Structures are given as structure tokens and as C-alpha cells.
Amino acid sequence: MVSDGLKITFLGSGTSTGVPQIGCQCEVCRSTDPRDKRLRQSAVVEYRGKRILIDCGPDFRQQYLACGCPHLDALLITHIHYDHVGGLEELRGFPSLPIYARADVIAALHSRLAYCFAEHPYPGVPHFNLVEIDDNTAFDCCGITIEPIPVLHYRMPILGFRIGPLAYITDCKTIGDEQILRLHGVPLLVINALRQEEHLSHLSLPQALEVINKINPGRAVLVHMSHHMGLHEQVAKILPPGVELAYDGMVLEIDNTTEGVANFNNN
Fold first, then answer.
1. CA angle centred on 133, ends 70 and 4, rounded to 5°
2. Which of 149, 215, 233, 235 is the 20 to 30 A CA-CA neighbour of 96?
3. Which residues, at least 6 apart from 219, have a Cβ–Cβ distance to it below 8 Å?
């Protein structure tokens, strides 16, 4: 990793169904381009000597093995939907891993995984170190100050995160003017764009581009894409400068050490 910089590895760049979607024979689902093979959304951020996982979906075991099983220092959960928490049981090898989430997410985990929180749990069940965070208060994560970014997933309040030069937002449909102002000029913005057409609970590609234009980041990367987005190769050609599609396994490094200037490296 670049000294004093940030590195992000996109473990998955797809929406809840993944791509290819089971039962679909569209050109995207039949594509042989590896960039069109999208596991459920997740990322690992390396910053100031710590490695932080964002979301842990049902593909986590496959994703984690593929990236070499690196040590993890913490997990941030954006919201409770299955494609973002369905792999939590795979963390049984990290019993002391702090997991940061909103109170509603923690309550839902206690209900959904009740056997893990029983007074006398069954031998071998995973143990979770849950840490409650709220929408408006920065929190310390392994010595790193992280700012929550509250957004709406249709009517559901969820969180994005600001980690140093990175703003990471997924499953957003609505982001308020206050948050846009706070993020203005961020070096790297990761934001969801489900498809090119309007959707009830996710930003479409045109809507995501509008948000990007308002925030005016140094660079923007689109995530949480369905097969309705289109072929990676074709969509990439219509994106404005400084905006690109993520793909599974994509790695970006940000060197933020020179007078506040962000230099990017793709690996």
C-alpha cells in the first residue's frame, strides 16, 4: 500500500441477485468478460495500517479466499439487508472483531441470529463483538476516525462511511444536501448505481451521475450494479471523465501525502 495512503479492494460490485442472475440469459449474464461477473457488494479498505471490511454478504467466503485471507481489524455494516450481512457466520475465525452498526441493525442481528446470542450458545457458533454507532457522530475504529454518512434506501435509513480520503455509499436512493456539502471535493467517492432506468430504492445511473456532479470528487467509482446496467465495456464508454465502473477484484490506491493532492493507482 502507498505510504500514508488508502487502498480499497472491491470484493464484490453487484446487487442482491449477483451477476449472472440465476435463470437469466441476457447478454450481460452470458458475457465472458470477467468484469461482468459480479458478486454481492463488499470492500476491504486499508488505511493507516488497519484493514477494515465494509459489509459481509453471502459471497464473503468466496471473496475472502480469493483475496488471500488477509487479517481484518474491523467490520462496518451499512444496513441489515441479506446481501450485506449474509456472510457474518463466516467471521467465526474472528471472535473479537469489532462490528460497527446502527442500533436497528444490531437489534435485527440479535433476532436473526438469536442462537449466537443465547445465554448458553451451542458450541462452535460465532461470537460477535457488536459496537453501536449513530447517524451523526464520528466514531473511533481501531484508532481511525470514521464519519457516518446517513442516506435513505427508499424509506430505510442506512449508513455510508467517510474514511480519510474515501467516501463509501451503497444502496442509496436519497442523499441530503447537508451530506453532499460535507463530501464536496472528496478525493474518492464510491457510490451505487443499480441500472440505467429509475428504481424505487436505488440510484439509477443518471441519478448517480447527478450526485457525483454535485459532490465533484476527484474520482468516482460506481458499485452495486445489476445486469440491467449493461455490459461493462459498453457502459464504460458513455461515462464522463473521472467516473468508472467497479469490478470484482478491482484495487485502487490513493496517495494523499502531497499538499492534499490525491494520486491514484489501479492494480
1. 45
2. 149
3. 187, 188, 189, 242, 243, 244, 262, 264
